[in-house]
Every structure is written in C-alpha cells, then in structure tokens.
Amino acid sequence: MSSTPLIVAIDGPAGAGKSTVSRSLASRLGLEYLDTGAMYRAVTHAAISRGVALEDTEAVAALAGTIRLRVAHGRTSVDGVDISESIRGDAVTAAVSTVAANSAVRQVMRDLQRAWGLARAGGVIEGRDIGSVVFPDALLKVYLTASPRVRAERRVAEVGGDVDEMEKAIIQRDLKDSSRSDSPLSASSDSIVVDTAGRSVEAVVEEIVTMIAQRRTAIGS
Ligand code: DC
Question: Which atom belonging to ligand 1 lies closest to the Cα atom of 109?
C-alpha cells in the first residue's frame, strides 16, 4: 500500500448532514475527523466573549492567530476552556458568517487545518472549502447537499422551531456563505455531489466508502 494520505474532504451547506456523515465515515475508516466549522465558531465565540468587534477584521484575525484552539473528539476548547455547547448557540450562529468571511482569519484556519492533515496519515475533514482550497489534492472530495426545505426540516426535528422560519434562516446563511469573496461555498468541479434527501446516514457512508475504494484502485494506492 502506498503512503498517499487518505484525506477525505466533505464540503457542503449547513444541514446537509456533513457532521453526522463525516463522524460515522471516520469511525468506519479508523481515521480522525476534523470539524472546521467548529474552528470558525470558536474564533467567533472568542471575539464575542472578549469584546472584539467582529467588523474589526485585523483584531479578529490577530485573536485567531493567538488563541490556543483545540477541536477534537467532538469537543472544542479555546485556551483550555471547553466551549463545545456555547459555540452552537444563537449568538455564535448568527455571527459566524461574518468571521468566516474574514480572509485573514481564513488563512490562519487553513494553516491549522493543513497542519492537522499533514500530522496524520489521513483524516475526514468537514467544511466548505476543504476540497476546493485547503486540500485540493484530497483523495476524495464529496459535496453533500439537500434542498433548504429538507435541511430546515432536519434542523427543526433536532432543535425545534418553525420550519418556514428555519428555511428562511438557512437560505440567508447559504447566501452569505456562497456570496463572500474569499472561497465562497460551492462544489468544486472535481467533487462528487451527493444529495442526502431521504437517505439514511448509513447509505451515504456506504456510498462514500465505495467511492474511496474505487478511487484508490484507480490511482493504484
Ligand atoms: O458547519 P458550521 O455551520 O458549523 O459552519 C459555521 C460557519 O463557518 C458557516 O457560516 C460556514 C463557515 N465555514 C467556512 O466558511 N469554512 C469552513 N471550512 C467551515 C465553516
């Protein structure tokens, strides 16, 4: 077997099932999993809690470069303080697109993400720009998607709320993530688009495992 790192990039919009699929895929492959959305959320949380204005791009980037950020095993911490629950709250969710649009922050995050991948024989990395920018040579690039309605229904089943309102919020966030100038959310031309609507996590994971095997055969690794 060759030493080609087994980097699997899972990109796509919010609510497409990336986290559940990535976690399950990583465990199936015996690889580690990195949630890069949690990294942007952690920087956002740090900025809010330290009173750094989100519009002050330089200050937020400086903060991103100096905090000790740890995202592992489903937990997220900044400077040793566990913030796993608070990064999923409304305040961070509403503000994170602004931080994710900050190019200097993105640069810091990408460096950390590449270092994470290079320190391992491989891994499953979930985000928006993993296949397009962070790991353009990933062994496999998957773009998971589903309609805003389907994603809103899933989210409401998890956290409650009104489906129409949730759908509107999802469309707004998609728009923000896909219209920013730095690496907007979009499927790269060499990624495989998988629509998760009406499909079980197991079925999607199985399809990706098959794609990985095919890819490895094709490149002889
Ligand atoms: O996946 P998530 O909802 O936790 O992502 C939070 C935000 O971070 C979302 O607005 C998209 C952004 N993000 C990004 O721009 N690039 C990534 N690689 C991951 C997330």
Answer: 18
Nearest-CA residue for ligand 1 atom 2 is 37
Percent pLDDT > 70 in the chain is 98
Could you tell me the residue range of the domain that residue 105 belongs to? 6-219
| First-residue to last-residue Cα distance in the chain | 6
CATH label of the domain that carries residue 199: 3.40.50.300
Distance 101 CA to ligand 1 centre (A): 10
Do residues 148 and 167 make contact, with C-beta atoms less than 8 angstroms apart?
Answer: yes
Residue spans of alpha helices (H) in the chain: 18-29, 36-49, 57-66, 90-100, 103-118, 148-159, 163-179, 201-219
Read off the pTM: 0.93
